[in-house]
Sequence to fold (65 residues):
Amino acid sequence: MRRTPPQRPVQTPPARPVVPNRPDGGVVVPTPVVPTPTVRAEERRPQIATPAPISTPPPLRRPGG
Fold:
């Protein structure tokens, strides 16, 4: 019976990525991405452009000042 040469230990990568300090036991559970509408139904209405009051101009830097 031949002696088999000493085999070096094969490092098997972990089947699941383990994240420390995880409340669910370190198993990373991919959270399903729910497409949340960024614009709500109330904000989707055409906004009425309120005309800016002409009496108060926006504060602009005066030239030469």
In short: The chain is about 0% helix and 0% strand.
